[in-house]
Amino acid sequence: MQGLMMDYQLTLTPFLERAMRMFPKKEIVTKSGPSLERSTYGEVTERIGRLANALARMGIRSGDRVATFSFNNTRHFELYFAAPCMGAVLHPLNLRLPPDQLVYIVNHAEDKVLFFEPQFAPAIEKLSAHFKTVKQYVVMGPTVPETTLSPVVSYEELLRNEIPDYPWPRLQENDAAAMCYTSGTTGNPKGVMYSHRSLYLHSMGLSMADSVGLVERDIYMPVVPMFHVLAWGTPFAAMMLGTSIVFPGPHLTPRDLAELLSAEKVTLTAGVPTLWMGLLNLLDNERYDLSNLRGMVVGGAAAPQSMIEAYEKRHGLKIIHAWGMTEMTPLGTVSNLLRSQEGLPDAERFAIRARQGPPVPGVETRAIDENGKEVPWDNKTFGELEVRGPWIIKSYYNDERTPQSFHDGWFKTGDVVVIDENGSIQIVDRSKDVIKSGGEWISSQDMENVIMSHPKVAEAAVIAVPHPKWQERPLACVVPKPDFKDSLTKEEIYEHLKTKFTKMYLPDDIVFIDAVPKTSVGKFDKKVLRVQYKDYVLPDR
Ligand code: AMP
User: N or C: lower Cβ tally within 10 Å for the chain?
Assistant: First the structure.
């Protein structure tokens, strides 16, 4: 017996049409240099039609990849819909990647056209000779600067010559809509190809009250770059709901962000923890009115408990801690309190919110031990997290490394976790970051969080260093806050750690460094530290 409901294809086009008809006056704002560019869903959806006509005139056909090299701004948002809804594939490129990786990605994706910000013209000129498939360049501004790139045209000129009506094609829900490459891998980056269906369902996932709970009433500011997992999929959900958006543009210092959050009365924002640690420092010293801000989504790396507590206790601001991956569009878990946890003492509630949390409806999770068996939900037994669901990858794009990442129809995340009786996940480490000392596994993330809760510490990364007897032992690399650069001592950190860890877990040594190296998306890059300290001789303790 079959159900008798419509075979309605889940594509992004109805999001566009809904916003056009229902929310033409809602605002979309971009910070561009010192000024703000204000537009509306009415204007933006009209320009999306013009842009689709321009892409078609350029020869972009169904399935062609449209690359962008851009910031979080309104033009980029227009591309987010014009390309997928006309049947092409949006492909945002990571601005912070080294040139050889960019060339690899553009050629591997076979990008046909490249949209870029005017200031990147010199950088793109240097690479263009290596791009094998790019046939057209578009400068994302009113005019074309002096450049050797060819053929090249300006975005505004393209739009001026087109009409807003576009005959949107009837797409199939499994058609490709967008792609991103993973940032975390060693070796060449791997491509993830999102479908219309996965982006549609993921937008619903983001809007659930038990998840991030984005709503029409929000004024939303994505600080997470639009090249990092499509700004965590949030621009699609914003269009679906008609949520006002504030795009922060290229300037992302804590002061820029605080001013914009305050001036535009932003209610919800999102970004990686390093960003919010910087903002916290600023808010501790200067006053801004952030009374409209109801939540700050933090993901991409663990939100330290001390940061969640500091925001809430000192500034009345709520961190919404989420975990995900490029391969998951990225939403996996959100660490909201359950009804039964609401009355718990402060310390317990903050500890729960610092976990990665239970999977959002739509995502299934399990953890598997070294023998391939599922581990119990006892909050003790370590296992590798595996996931499945409608917005999770089934295969990398043209990549022979795909089979290594799947187990029995589940995607292997590479994250080592414990799971509690409520199904709430706590990431212990990336599998390559766990410290294997004798028979014990030591979580570097736990230790980093405790060190970073010390009032004199700005950042901390804990890595494994080879050890003749124990195979590996922990070394803590610590960045003092500027005021304590010369005064913070190893003893103070050991005293602090002893309140939480027994002797066997304490790092064998502590080194002070100026900054923890960061990846292209702003996470701690422990690979660099591991190489730097691979021959480090640990003292006897
Ligand atoms: P990416 O694909 O670049 O977003 O990286 C995904 C990886 O980032 C995950 O597999 C985790 O290791 C890490 N990650 C993302 N969110 C969190 C979080 N809330 N806590 C801890 N690790 C996280």
Answer: N
Based on the residue annotation, tell me whether 26 is a catalytic residue of this protein: no
- Which of 408, 432, 456 is at the close of a domain? 432
Residue-number span of the structural domain to which 488 is assigned: 439-532
**Looking at the domain assignment, is residue 541 inside a domain?**
no
Amino acid at 506: L
**Tally of CB atoms within 10 A around 398:** 12
pTM: 0.91
- 519, two tokens: 């990846």
pLDDT digits (tens, 9 = 90+) for 260-295: 999 999 999 999 998 999 999 999 999 999 999 999
Contacts of 444 (CB under 8 A, 6+ apart): 429, 433, 434, 435, 461, 462, 463, 464, 474, 526
Instruction: Please tell me the distance from the alpha carbon of residue 465 to that of residue 471, in angstroms, as a whole number.
Output: 8
- 182 catalytically annotated: yes
Judgement on whether residues 264 and 136 belong to the same structural domain of the protein: no
Ligand 1 site, residue 328, Cβ cutoff 6 A = no
Summarised one tens digit per residue, pLDDT across range 344-389 is: 999 999 999 999 999 999 999 999 998 999 999 999 999 999 999 9
Nearest Cα to Cα of residue 436 among 415, 465, 476, 461: 465
Exposure of 62 in the CB half-sphere (CA atoms within 13 A)? 6
Place of tokens 């094609």: 169
Tokens 């995607």 label which residue?
411
Q: What is the domain-level CATH number for residue 516?
A: 3.30.300.30
Residue 103 lies in a domain: yes
**CB-based burial, 492-506: b 16+ in 10 Å, e otherwise:** bbeebbeeebeeebb
Indicate whether 206 belongs to any domain.
no
Which residues make beta-bridge pairs with 427?
417
| CB-ligand 1 contact for 356 (6 Å cutoff) | yes
d(CA 539, CA 76): 52
Hey, how many other C-beta atoms are within 10 angstroms of the C-beta on 84?
A: 27
**Do 412 and 327 lie in a common domain?**
yes
Contact 442, 505 (CB under 8 A): yes
241 domain residue, yes or no: no
**How many domains in the chain?**
3
Catalytic status, residue 441: yes
